[in-house]
Amino acid sequence: MAKIINVISDKNVPKWGNKKKYIAIHYLGVVGQNNKVEAGGYGAHYYIYWDGTIYQAAKHDAILWQVGTAGYYTQKHPEARNSNTIGIELCPKCDGNASNPSDPYWYFTTETQEACVQLVKKLMQDLGIPASHVLRHYDIVNKHCPAPYVNNNKYKTSWTWEEFKARISGSSGGSSTDGTGQMYRIRKSWADAGSQIGAYENLDNAKAACKAGYTVYDKDGKAVYSKAETWKATGTATCGGNGVYVRSGPGKSHDPLGQLNKGQRFEVDGNDSGEWVHVKVAGIGIGYMHKDYVVYDQPTASASSWKAIGTATCTGQGVNVRSGPGTSYKSLGQLGKGNRFEVDGQEKNGFIHIKVHLNGKDRIAWISSQYVKRD
Ligand SMILES: [Zn+2]
């Protein structure tokens, strides 16, 4: 293993709490050698020089501005972000026009590339990052970086990106522990490396970062701490498409737990993550669905946005108040003859949209129109 020279500085680190799920490979973009995280937090955790010397410039917990869109690039990767990615800058050379970021004559020395393979393999092992989570900057946003592995023309460069990936995917060197000590990894299950949300040297830090439904594992995969998944539904919804996946985590890289078809019902609890909605589905369990396929029962159902146009009285005994306009929707409680409520003029499938005080709180709900007498 090439030596890693410690030039770590916290000075220009803009943010802390890196989740360490991905590794991004960059090239410096200029002919030269540099090992500093510049003011503003631009830079990477590691820099590799032409002779293969590795410098670590920032702690793994540092979040650096290295793979974001900067309001300019287009996001390509569904999950890799500054907040969960460790960056490695390779110092390149160029025989062409170095002011052109995509010039075909950019290249890496053999020493730089070999050190990069060693460093990536070490980080994969230390941080529990799978080879599928080792990416080019170019795989995350549409930036031509690192040029030699985007051009893939092998100009004075030993490997294409695919060949680099093959080298880090090999199972060689699996037993090396080289003094890095214990790492605690937070995953849904030990086998599901893709579900990892963090890796920590300190068990207390790992416990603090552990989310409901996740377990902290020691370096041998033994569970040392778990946080049970508690579910508190805040609403119900319907699936808006066919063959829609429910996944173990918020992103396409997470394993499917099952599939839903149009019209199938499930619960939501509001603990969404980006474009992914946290759902509980009977027979499948708790997971995430993409928001494009989630049709909420009450899209504007919050008591604060309610706009009453009148009041009404319930004319029946034991009349169900439901979460949606139909008898298939969950009953939130029952009203008796003479109970009062507000209406906002919405009516669907013979059900009227109401705001009613029920079991101690205001609920936005639906009630069959045959039991409603407007004032
Ligand atoms: Zn880059």
TrEMBL record:
Highest rank taxon of the organism: Bacteria
SUPFAM superfamilies, sorted: N-acetylmuramoyl-L-alanine amidase-like (SSF55846)
Record SMART domains: Ami_2, SH3b
UniProt xrefs under InterPro entries: Amidase/PGRP_sf, Amidase_domain, Cell_Wall_Dynamics_Protein, SH3-like_bac-type
Domain SH3b: 234-298, 309-375
Signal peptide segment: none
Molecular function terms, GO-annotated: N-acetylmuramoyl-L-alanine amidase activity
Pfam families for this protein: Amidase_2, SH3_3
GO BP terms: peptidoglycan catabolic process
Protein name listed in UniProt: Amidase
Organism: Candidatus Limivivens intestinipullorum
